[in-house]
Amino acid sequence: MKRTLGTCYYPEHWPREIWEEDAQRMAELGLTWVRIGEFSWSKIEPKAGEYCFEWLDEAIDVLGRAGLKVVLGTPTATPPRWMIDKYPDMLAVDVEGRIRKFGSRRHYCFSHEGYKQECAVITKVIAERYGKNPHVAAWQTDNEYGCHDTTISYGSSALQAFRLWLQEKYKTIDALNDAWGNIFWSMIYDDFDQIELPNLTVTEPNPAHSLDFRRFSSDQVVRFNRLQCDIIREYSAAPLSHNYMGRITDFDHFEVGKDLEIATWDSYPLGFLEDRVGTTPERQRAFARQGDPDFQAFHHDLYRAVGHGRWWVMEQQPGPVNWAPTNPAPLEGMVRLWTWEAFAHGAEAVCYFRWRQAPFAQEQMHAGLLRPDHKEAPAFAEAREVFKEIQNAPVVAQAQSRVGLIFDYDADFAWAVQPHGDGLSYFGIVFDCYRALRSLGLSIDILPPDTQDFSGYDMILAPALMHMSDALKAKLSQTQAQIILGPRAGARDAHMTIPVPLPPAFPDLDVTVSYVESIRSDMPIALEKEGVVEFYREHLEGQDEIVLATEAGEAVAMGNHNIVYLGACLDLEGWKSIISPRCELAGIETMELPDGIRRRACGDECFWFNYTTENYQMDDMTIPPAGVIRVVGEVSK
Ligand code: GAL
Predict the structure, then answer these.
(1) Among 4, 71, 321, 595, which residue's CB has the most CB atoms within a 10 Å radius?
(2) Which of 118, 255, 315, 538 is catalytic?
(3) Is 353 in the pocket of ligand 1 (CB under 6 A)?
(4) How many CB atoms lie within 10 A of CB 485?
């Protein structure tokens, strides 16, 4: 696969007269891809059943003739206004029971049968028309499932579908009562039709009820997406994709990914920094114009796994965005750095969002490659530079890393239902671990929990994996890799119940979690080595060796020569204290990288990235601020 560039374009936003020139300029810039169509439903079908395709025929033709390849989006993230008259109850309902009205986007409930039928029809009409069009080289289903908190709806369509889902899962109401533990607080049901959605209860609902509702909501996204995929495939052989997001974890992306050829994601490093990354105000200031040095990389690795190796950045931030708490401009060079970082992690394409800044509507304060007056915005020159550079490094490297990190959406649902302390989240713990691995100079593969073959990994980490199937435990215990588990590994069974024997109940480990506690953020506990325990810890008993202890000598991690069980949340130094010695046992070389200097090795390439505002001196190399260095040859992984 080749490294390519692209952009997101909205022909329906601009007069017909400028399309040709736009297409020409895209081609001259070196772009290969142009994504269009994903919000254009009201232009394609202005009235129910009345289609207007001439403009789209022409737009695809103009772009194609300029040598560009089109990624065509299905427009189902923005149903037209007339649809709401037809199906007033298709709108989603929030947790407080309020209707989420028309007037922006993503105004639908994944469970509404009428809306799904409409989606099937529009997808079929579009796929039929463009399925064999030589310029349509890939598809995108919908746009950013889950964006604006839209995975979960508490309306009547969701309720009906949830009851059916439960019936299919449990068969009898007694089995459900049993699995959920409904004897507690007299919550026993006589019939599936008595079950409500888990909102607006007097105090917290049964966690098993909430977890099943999250699983159901995730399944609805998978089904919604599959409906479109099955239709498009009847008419087109081009690959299918969906653009996922940063730190949106409320549906199982691995399951959606099974129906698609390519995973893409939308990378807004500055947009994410203040309220998605979860970092301190000091670091937010330090990286305000660069973005968090690990957040993009984490998602690159995650979506490489979701896409079974094939992934893109579908939307790359090119300048200030409009939607974060504050919206600074990137440091000069960062657009180039972000683009190269994606390529270093195996991206086949990086597409900039958007071609031209729109002077109207919600995103008028969002930069593009062009300004509203058609002149070049600062990112244009950086994209041009990358295009020149990829001529000399054209091929996407694919290579397995030595370190594997398991990521499980179901564990995220379980943590969300029962975090046991403010600020505790599954994503947060996994990301802390990932940051520690990166600051040790390591390259990482993220792995789904149903990975069948762990061979080739010398270290596998499974932090915070709340429920572990017996199959996964068996597979992990059979590998030769160093394994690090916990905290809260196997802490619940599939129904959100504490298992007995008590966790982690892992083969060959003589460690038991006797009880757990969350701790105040201002009461960290010092470790005997570098770092602290923070927010959460487990009390461990058993015969295995204490691998890491507090200053007071209490066990924080226990295990044997191959497996470690970690019973705590740790800060960065703490994570490194547990990971480094295990790397040594696995024969994996580590290095201490300063915050903001990052490295990624893949194939015979090794990349260095400087996310800081200072020069970084390394042996005989200086990496300037926002600098990227690519070294080719034998590299240590
Ligand atoms: C993405 C979305 C785009 C655009 C962009 C603005 O979340 O897919 O349509 O809204 O954000 O940054």
Answers:
(1) 71
(2) 315
(3) yes
(4) 29
- Total of domains in the chain: 3
Asked if 410 and 558 sit in the same domain, the reply is yes
What's the 194 CA to ligand 1 centre distance in angstroms?
A: 39
| 608-624 pLDDT per residue, tens | 999 999 999 988 899 99
Record the pTM.
0.98
| In a domain? residue 352 | no
Among the candidates 220, 237, 254, a domain finishes at 237
Reported as a single tens digit per residue, the pLDDT across 329-346 is: 999 999 999 999 999 999
Residue 124's domain spans which residues? 32-237
Q: Which residue, judged by its Cα, is nearest atom 10 of ligand 1?
A: 363
Distance 308 CA to ligand 1 centre (A): 24
Question: Which residue among 38, 45, 118, 144 is the active-site one?
Answer: 144
Share the mean pLDDT of the chain.
Answer: 97
Instruction: Please check whether residues 146 and 214 belong to one and the same domain.
Output: yes
Domain-embedded: residue 612: yes
Q: Quick one: pLDDT at residue 257?
A: 98
Q: With 90 as the cut, is the pLDDT of residue 279 above it?
A: yes
Same domain, yes or no: 488 and 415:
yes
The three-state DSSP-derived secondary structure of 299-357 is: HHHHHHHHCCCCEEEEEECCCCCCCCCCCCCCCCCHHHHHHHHHHHCCCCEEEECCCEC
- Report the Cα 322 to chain-centroid distance in Å: 21
Q: Are residues 420 and 525 in the same domain?
A: yes
**Tokens coding 295:** 């957040």
Q: How confident is the model at residue 637 (pLDDT cuts 50, 70, 90)?
A: low
620 assigned to some structural domain: yes
Q: How far is CA 89 from CA 84, 86, 158, 291, in A?
A: 8, 9, 11, 40
Say yes or no: 607 and 512 in one domain.
Answer: no
Q: Contact at 8 Å (CB) between 48 and 84?
A: no
